[in-house]
Design a protein that fits this description.
It is built from five helices and four strands. It is of the alpha+beta class. It has two domains: 6-64, no CATH class; 68-157, no CATH class. It has a two-stranded antiparallel sheet with strand order 1-2. A two-stranded antiparallel ribbon has the order 3-4. Strand 3 (130-137) and strand 4 form a beta hairpin. Helix 3 (61-83) runs antiparallel to helix 4 (94-109). The radius of gyration is 17 Å and the shape is elongated. The relative contact order is 0.11.
């Protein structure tokens, strides 16, 4: 993903831009940055594309870069998981762990909330191994996470 290509713009719209109903009016009209709410006046703002009637979100360049980095690190990590012999089997993999930490750092730098395990709904901590989970649901493709071991969902199901 390059910062200015159509795929990057589309991925930002699909995975990073919230629904209009979740935003303040100034965020919907592009008067402030979609993510940090900094006023557009006097700042370089990037048009994220028209999302709907009257919804034209904009982002400051630094927030946009941070969100792109978060997406890139997620997809790099997910791609590694698909190709690695060790990660899906639960074995410790230094490359997978490095990519996981890089993604968690990118999420944090983008101001995003900590990721939550799709299984047990607990926050994914930096200390616990986790996996990227990409799945297609009724409303589209979702980028989620799960614990690799010791997921509380499994513990609750035990007799």
């Amino acid at each position: 993903m390059r910062d200015d290509d159509a795929i990057t713009r589309t991925m930002l719209l699909i995975h990073e831009v919230p629904a209009a109903r979740e935003l303040e009016p100034a965020q919907r009209t592009g008067e402030v940055c979609l993510w940090c709410s900094t006023p557009a006046a006097g700042r370089e703002m990037v048009d994220l594309g028209c999302v709907g009637d009257g919804y034209t979100p904009h982002a400051c360049a630094s927030c946009r870069r941070a969100r792109i980095r978060s997406l890139r690190t997620y997809f790099t990590w997910a791609n590694h998981w698909e190709l690695c012999a060790d990660c899906p089997s639960g074995q410790l993999c230094s490359d997978g762990d490095r990519l996981r930490l890089a993604h968690l750092d990118a999420r944090q730098m983008a101001g995003k909330t900590p990721p939550v395990c799709a299984g047990c709904k607990q926050i994914i901590s930096w200390a616990r191994r986790s996996a990227p989970v990409v799945f297609e649901g009724m409303s589209g493709v979702y980028l989620t996470y799960r614990h690799v071991t010791d997921c509380q969902r499994s513990a609750r199901r035990a007799p």
